[in-house]
Amino acid sequence: MPRIGRAPEEPLFSELSQFAEKLKLELGEHFHCLAVRGSASRGTFVKGASDIDLIVFAYGPALQTLSPEHCITQATDIDLEWFEPEDFLQSSRYQWLKFSLSYSGYCFGPQNLLTELPAPTLGSRAIAHLHRVDRWAKAWPTHLADAKTDGERKRACSWLMKRIVRSLFEAEMLKRNVYSRDIYPCAEIASEAFPSHAPMIWRAAELAVAPTSELSLIREVADCLLPELLNLQSRLRRDMEHVHSETPQLPLLFTTQSRFT
Asked: What is the pLDDT of residues 188-207, one digit of tens each?
């Protein structure tokens, strides 16, 4: 697979650079780098619709006083993780995150951890959400109930719908030898693979980028598509028990541009 990570577009690039400089000032020589993944480094970021995923690589415990939202105004939601570089690189965990960063991550110095990651290959480590459908299928009602504002409820809706659409795509990804994280191509392939659910898949895709705070609309999609996903998860687990090698590498189809993020 190619490495498609690119520098985020302005003004997001400047905001992330400012946050990286803040980290460098606060952490000094303990700061390794700031990595960004997702739509911001795939060229599909949309202000007001996209969230942003950041990973701080540094030595020592995570700072509890970090406030990236003071620097970053373009994203609707900011997810921040913290790892020590060697722990991350040497651990057998974080396989999907390593794949994601290798495939489409971008790094703000002083060092570039992404160059130490293996080249991305399409295989089981490229599956992000289908492995854990049972967990987040149980968790989403709690996330929504805990949301205090209309905006928080919409973020919970988007979180759920993105997982639904991408998980349905992941059920077909290895069979078709095609990869994407963008909602439109994921929904397109999922609707082809599951035609009886196509209208609801497209509704989930729309709600992923234009979410609602109405519980009845969210539940309608969840009640329709989550049972199918739980069946697909069970099938994946059975298949993985019998498969111990990666999918043979064929010419790969992929897309990074869409009208959805």
From this structure: 999 999 999 999 999 999 99
The answer to whether 168 touches 190, Cβ cutoff 8 Å, is: yes
Domain limit, last residue, from 120, 153, 170? 120
Using an 8 Å Cβ cutoff, are 42 and 4 in contact?
yes
Considering the entire predicted model, what is its pTM? Answer: 0.85
Place of tokens 């309608």: 220
Number of independent structural domains in the chain = 2
CA distance 54 to 94: 15
DSSP per residue, 166-206? HHHHHHHHHHHTEE--SHHHHHHHHHHH-GGGHHHHHHHHH
List the domain range (segments joined by +) for residue 165. 125-254
- Which helix (H) or strand (E) element contains residue 150? helix 150-176
End position of a domain, from candidates 120, 154, 182: 120
Tell me what pLDDT residue 11 has. Answer: 94
Give the span between the Cα atoms of 221 and 205, in whole angstroms.
10
What CATH number corresponds to the domain at position 96? 3.30.460.10
> Is the residue at 259 inside a domain?
no
